[in-house]
Specification:
Length: 385
């Protein structure tokens, strides 16, 4: 069959320019910057063949990449057809990519711990388990992402990891050399030990292994440029809280409690670890603060009242710095359902009592400027505790 020549044949530059608009779905950077464009061949009839390198063989997002490339190139004037041929990077190419993602640094370092980091890191802590710490974390993350911020979540609740399910992010992360690409859901990048354990098997790890896992989550995961990173800590004052303080001295603490006095006392103990670790406490969130009566809408104080205020006052006394109550979140069945269904209530029902309360707290956190002013310089000697 004779090849038809047309008057206007697209140039390689025009095709490359179109490819520069295609982001890798996991790394969120143009494929042209990532060395993923293997070849471009243009026939006189305007048909374009593009060779694309995948970072790993069996890449789960191969179809997404193919369709993004096809769509982008098809829009170039003069293009009559697009075919995409996939190949896989060599070990050498992967090493180069991993190094370039790390900004050319061979050493793994935690980007958020660098004195110049502009990412705000919040550790969400609680005294007792089951007070809604993970639910609050994922909802704040989704609400902050909905405000347009770049948000990441580390599920550091290594024993009771529930964040991926609550965010509907249950995919397995792709690995490029020793870099891990975090799955993202509702615009929130998320990483959890649950993504690396087969099935629902329990994780029985000792302190040093937990420290290592956390370090990997912070240094080996490709987070990109984040405005906010939230860490869901295990309940209580454990090894992980100390590890976080050592790894990211700039991290600030958000304490979640219920209104119950007994829960408040434990939450206050968990929060006061900040005194030893020299971290700042951003504030206290009171979860399960009453429930609107389904018949008359009057608030029923299921877990009593005053826990959030008690913790905030206690922590203000112990730390010597003003610790505010950032807000109260009522008991709301939609919040529990959202967690079970993997769609945070702040998105599925933003005007519900819990959704609205969480959005209000997220706005307070979102208003805090990205930047270095008022932040610790990370100079606390890590062997002090
Ligand atoms: N305000 C709320 N209204 C209704 N249900 C809630 C609320 N907050 C949390 N829940 C539900 O309470 C249960 C416990 O919440 P969650 O798992 O977030 O607690 P946690 O403090 O992270 O627990 P742990 O630290 O033990 O993992 C979940 O089923 C969650 O959906």
């Amino acid at each position: 069959m004779a090849t038809e020549t047309q008057d206007f044949t697209p140039t390689e530059d025009a095709v490359r320019e179109a490819l520069a608009t295609v982001d890798d779905p996991e790394i969120h950077r143009p494929i042209t910057d990532l060395g993923m464009v293997k070849s471009i061949a243009i026939s006189p009839d305007g048909a374009v063949d593009v060779g694309v390198y995948l970072t790993v063989s069996g890449c789960p997002l191969r179809d997404t990449i193919t369709s993004r490339v096809t769509e982008a190139v098809r829009r170039v004037p003069g293009v009559t057809g697009v075919s995409v041929e996939l190949d896989v990077m060599s070990d050498e190419q992967r090493r180069e990519l991993a190094a370039s993602l790390r900004g050319g640094k061979a050493e793994r370092e935690i980007p958020f711990a660098q004195p110049g980091s502009l990412t705000r890191v919040y550790c969400v802590a609680s005294g007792k388990g089951g007070v809604g710490k993970s639910s609050v974390t994922v909802n704040l993350a989704a609400a902050l992402a909905a405000q347009g911020l770049k948000v990441g979540v580390v599920d550091a609740d290594i024993y009771g990891h529930s964040v991926p399910r609550m965010l509907g992010a249950d995919g397995r992360p792709t690995q490029v050399e020793d870099m891990i690409m975090p799955p993202s859901s509702f615009g929130v990048k998320v990483i959890s030990i649950g993504m690396f354990t087969p099935g629902n098997s329990p994780v029985v790890w000792r302190g040093p292994m937990l420290h290592r896992a956390l370090q990997q989550f912070l240094a080996d995961v490709y987070w990109g440029d984040l405005d906010v990173l939230l860490l869901d800590l295990p309940p209580g004052t454990g090894d992980i809280a100390i590890s976080v303080a050592q790894l990211i001295p700039n991290a600030e603490i958000l304490v979640v409690t219920t209104p119950q006095q007994a829960a408040a006392e434990v939450a206050e103990r968990a929060g006061s670890i900040a005194v030893q670790t020299h971290q700042k406490i951003v504030g206290v969130i009171e979860n399960m603060s009453g429930m609107p009566c389904p018949h008359c809408d009057e608030m029923v104080d299921v877990f009593g009242t005053g826990g959030g205020k008690q913790v905030a006052e206690g922590l203000t006394r112990t730390t010597g710095a003003e610790v505010p109550v950032l807000g109260g979140i009522p008991i709301d069945i939609r919040m529990r359902e959202g967690g079970d269904e993997g769609k945070p209530v702040v998105l599925s029902d933003p005007d519900s009592p819990a959704g609205a309360a969480l959005h209000k707290i997220a706005s307070k956190l979102g208003e805090r400027q990205r930047g270095l002013s008022g932040m610790s310089l990370g100079l606390t000697p890590s062997n002090k505790f």
